[in-house]
Specification:
heterotrimer; A alpha/beta (about 300); B mainly alpha (about 160); C mainly alpha (about 475); A: about 300 residues; alpha/beta; Alpha-Beta Plaits; 2 domains; B: about 160 residues; mainly alpha; Arc Repressor Mutant, subunit A; two-stranded antiparallel sheet; 5 helices; 4 strands
């Protein structure tokens, strides 16, 4: 980590939309040099949070500071350091691809032409195609290019790969990795495709119901959940069986499947020995972990 | 073994180009739930113990390895730092990271511990199935006879 | 019956149908207004009467509308897999046809319009109305690609109708040669009924582009199988290139400023969407305008000048909110404020140019054309006086401001409100004059004051929405 000063500082952020509360008191610091996965079910407030960070929405309560300034008052200079791409975005349909890229790049002080060239070649985006006639996948690729071309310090991608086929997704991830070679930048990806995202992110923020429920490093998070299978070697397992810090437990006469959150492994293993059981410990993949956490919220 | 394809953009990982002998093969399961850095550490350790990586071998630089595995370079960095702290690697300034010579006693202890962990499961299963200790021993001996580590080939029956 | 109920729902849920209803409404208005100004028609001479044929136009419009409904179902490949889609559509069409023909015949029975009718005549009339309906249905289905011509045709046909002696001839035949007319009508009706029931039409239409009524593109993703009307015709490359260069250079040169590039950018984007639709603007636009002028002229309850200028003002307000894109550009709130202001200025400039053009055109229209337009029975052709442009100048910012305030409301809502506003403003101009509001006095100071007020209103709105409120993209 190069800096210790967070680039985004959010305190007590609350947002009401008429009767619906999209965000309920969010506190968050985002430090530079991270790739963050913003996960959560539909309607949990991911997009709302993102829009506060880039200064579109005004909070009902609380503050949101980006680059040290109030997000709503971001000036030209700060905005040039931000890149944002989202999937429902409308592009200017009447232009062709080349015109659109030239138009957007005209506003930015720097634009990486090599990246643009390589990107359009590798992703097979033809310059002379009209934007209105592009397929949704190509449109998404173009939106991403417009967001990354000016090498932003804060890159926010809202569902960037949802319309891409598996090959395009792999290419996109590689491209992202090429971008993050530089220090001090932040990439924030809100995505449902966890299998892609977990390869490159190092930090996870999980949201539900307008609140942040997890804000941890990815490795930390993966290591704190365990999936354990308990198999009795001898007799039947007792009917009443409880474990400390167990989130879920499925059992029949001889076996039990348990999901733990940061358990005390030693005491658990001792318990298993007393019961004369075999213990198989597995890690929980991110997708399962995500479901486990979401379910335990209810 | 999980199918792991080389990256799209960087073609040099398709072939072991002569002169580029520092290709490190790691079999990472991205979706297993085991943190990637931990898998790197475990596999490097296993390769050291198995003699695939010898003392003085240079590890792939962070950028190269992360590009090859298509993962975040910070993950590789984390793995390397952890191994460095453990004493498996040493950093030679300006050049790179190198495998450190580990004293045979420590190495042997680590090997034993690793094999014991693997055998643990086998023993428990044998117990569950009701196999006797003698039976287990017989199986072990047979298996031992089959594989000989010296020339890394199956012996003729 | 379920199929029919589902189809009935389409009647009020689809945006396109509301366009057809509007046209239907206009044609009915036209017919009604003609009945209220009978002095120019030869009612005394019954042999020239064609009152009974008058509903021809609304019936045709209704037939086209229903035909479009069936076509929109049949162009979607998925409907091909639905059981009974042909039968259900035909049932629906028949139902609508019988309904509208019955209603019209009923009206003719109650108000025979200076004619004595025998019971058998009603039957003949019913058959004739049904025939018109069926012919319209089949035409609008067969000429799928040309459907956007229909609204113009309708608007043009209206004033021509009372010049067509053929119409009174048809009426005479219907009333006198009952049996032969009945035979002809029902032969054609049954033929059409049979054809609609076969697979021929759905097969022909499956996967064909579904043409929409509105001149413009539908909301994204609303109709996967429809292609928008021919628009987005790129300009010749050299002109397009020069235009691009002009704007891009200015944007790039000023990119350090937070305001100037966005001013140029906004003009570029608005002009771009206009120019890329140039065929629509320069061909469809004037046609609509002219047709509207003819129609309004024939209605006689509305003052033409105020109508047209309000029309332009209200339509121009929409330019202030178009050119939407969700690309995240580095524009801070101040820049957005000036960008919105630029949108207003651009909209006004465009509208001024268009109005000037039409006023000029209306002045130099040759005599033959004006006499053609004088076919409407009671009025003279009115040339546009540019001095009434103040109406546009006042209305445009207000419309733009309201559209920005209510940006979340649906397109249909906005269209309805705009339409009502146009009619009210056009219709009550005289009344307003009589009541004696300031601007009706036509003196310069009051006009200037009102213009300044409406501009101030717009600026207040954009200040509020850009600086004080949460933003959605669309820059």
């Amino acid at each position: 980590m190069s800096d210790f000063e967070p680039i985004v500082k959010i305190r007590g952020l609350t947002k009401h939309f008429k009767k619906h509360t999209a965000l309920a008191g969010v506190d968050l610091d985002i430090y530079p040099g991270r790739i963050i996965g913003l996960l959560g079910p539909n309607g949990c407030g991911k997009s709302t949070l993102i829009r506060h960070i880039i200064g579109l929405y005004l909070p009902s309560q609380g503050t949101c500071m980006t680059f040290g300034k109030n997000a709503a008052d971001l000036g030209q200079k700060e905005l040039c350091r931000i890149g944002y791409a989202h999937q429902e975005g409308q592009l200017l349909d009447w232009m062709n691809v080349e015109q659109l890229i030239r138009y957007v790049s005209a506003f930015y002080p720097k634009w990486n032409k090599d990246l643009e060239l390589r990107y359009t070649q590798d992703f097979e985006i033809r310059m002379k195609d009209r934007v209105g006639s592009l397929s949704p996948g190509q449109r998404q690729k173009l939106a991403i290019l417009l967001a990354i071309g000016h090498e932003p310090d804060l890159l926010i991608l809202d569902e960037p790969a949802s319309a891409l086929d598996p090959i395009a997704r792999a290419q996109f991830l590689e491209l992202l990795l090429n971008i993050i070679q530089q220090e001090g930048k932040i990439i924030l990806i809100a995505s449902h495709i966890l299998t892609d995202v977990e390869k490159i992110i190092d930090h996870v923020i999980m949201m539900n119901g307008g609140r942040i429920i997890k804000n941890q490093g990815l490795d930390n998070l993966l290591e704190s959940y365990l999936h354990v299978r308990l198999t009795s070697i001898g007799k039947e397992l007792p009917q009443e069986l409880s474990f400390e810090k167990a989130l879920f437990c499925q059992k029949d006469n001889y076996q039990a499947l348990i999901v733990f959150e940061t358990p005390d492994l030693d005491s658990f293993k001792a318990q298993a020995e007393r019961l004369n059981c075999r213990v198989d410990i597995h890690a929980l993949p991110l997708e399962d972990l995500y479901r486990v956490i979401m379910r335990s919220q209810h | 073994m999980k199918f792991q394809e080389p990256p799209f953009f960087n073609k040099k990982y398709y072939y072991n180009i002569p002169g580029f002998k520092d290709l490190m093969i790691l079999d990472i399961d991205y979706h297993s739930g085991v943190p990637i850095y931990r898998q790197i550490i475990d596999q490097v350790r296993e390769q050291i113990m198995g003699g695939l990586l010898k003392e003085g071998d240079q590890l792939m630089p962070v950028r190269e390895l992360s590009a090859m595995l298509t993962i975040n370079p910070m993950t590789v960095s984390k793995a390397y730092s952890a191994m460095e702290a453990e004493g498996l690697l040493e950093r030679r300034r300006g050049i790179g990271l190198f495998i450190v010579g580990i004293e045979p006693l420590r190495k042997d202890k680590a090997k034993e511990a690793h094999v014991e962990a693997l055998l643990n499961k086998a023993v428990i299963t044998a117990r569950q199935f009701g196999l006797s200790s003698k039976k287990m021993q017989k199986i072990l001996d047979e298996l031992f006879a089959k594989y000989q580590a010296d020339d890394r080939s199956l012996s003729d029956e | 019956m379920k199929g029919i109920t589902a189809n009935l729902k389409l009647l009020y849920q689809t945006r396109e149908m509301w366009g057809w209803y509007f046209l239907f409404f206009i044609s009915i208005l036209h017919i009604l207004s003609s009945f209220f100004t009978p002095q120019s028609r030869h009612i005394t001479d019954l042999s020239y009467n064609w009152d009974l044929i008058a509903p021809l136009l609304p019936l045709a419009v209704w037939g086209c509308a229903m035909g479009r409904l069936a076509a929109s179902i049949w162009t979607k490949p998925i409907s091909f897999c639905m059981p009974g889609h042909i039968r259900t559509s035909r049932k629906m069409l028949t139902l609508m046809g019988i309904a509208v023909a019955s209603v019209t015949s009923l009206i003719m029975m109650i108000f025979p319009f200076w004619l004595t009718l025998k019971p058998l005549n009603i039957v003949t009339l019913f058959s004739f109305y049904l025939l018109i309906y069926c012919l319209s249905v089949i035409t609008s289905i067969l000429f799928n690609k040309l459907v956007f011509v229909i609204p113009y045709l309708v608007l043009f046909v209206m004033p021509l109708m009372n010049r067509l002696e053929m119409l009174s001839l048809i009426q005479n035949i219907l009333l006198n040669d009952t049996w032969s007319s009945l035979f002809v009508c029902w032969a054609v009706i049954l033929l059409i009924y049979y054809v609609v029931g076969t697979k021929y039409l759905p097969r022909r239409m499956c996967g064909a582009p579904s043409m929409t009524f509105f001149v413009g593109s539908e909301a994204p993703g609303s109709d996967l199988y429809s292609t928008p009307l021919p628009q987005n015709n790129p300009l010749p490359k050299r002109i397009a290139g020069a235009v691009n260069q002009f704007f891009l250079v200015r944007i790039q040169y000023n990119k350090s400023s937070s305001i100037v590039p966005h001013i140029w950018g906004r003009i570029y984007v608005i002009l771009g969407s206009f120019i890329s639709n140039w065929r629509v603007i320069f061909f469809d636009g004037p046609i609509i305008f002219l047709a509207a002028a003819i129609f309004i002229n024939s209605i006689r309850v509305i003052d033409l000048q105020s109508f047209l200028y309000s029309f332009i003002g209200l339509l121009g307000g929409h330019i202030c909110v178009m050119s939407g894109s969700d690309i995240f550009l580095p524009v801070d709130r101040r820049g957005r404020f000036f960008s919105e202001l630029t949108a207003l200025m651009t909209a006004i400039s465009i509208m001024l140019i268009i109005t000037g053009l039409f006023a000029f055109l209306s002045r130099i229209l040759p005599h033959s054309v004006t006499s053609f337009i004088n076919l409407t029975w009671s009025s003279n052709f009115v040339t546009l006086h540019v001095k009434y442009i103040f109406i546009t100048m006042i209305l445009l910012p207000i419309t733009g401001g309201l559209l920005i305030l209510f940006r979340k409301k649906s397109f249909l809502f906005i269209l309805t409100v705009t339409g009502i506003a146009i009619f009210l403003l056009g219709a009550h101009y005289h009344m307003i004059k009589k009541i004696g509001f300031a601007f009706s006095a036509f003196n310069i100071p009051s006009i200037v004051l009102l213009t300044a007020l409406s501009f101030g209103f717009y600026m207040a709105i954009i200040y509020y929405s850009v600086i004080k409120r949460s933003l959605f993209l669309r820059n």
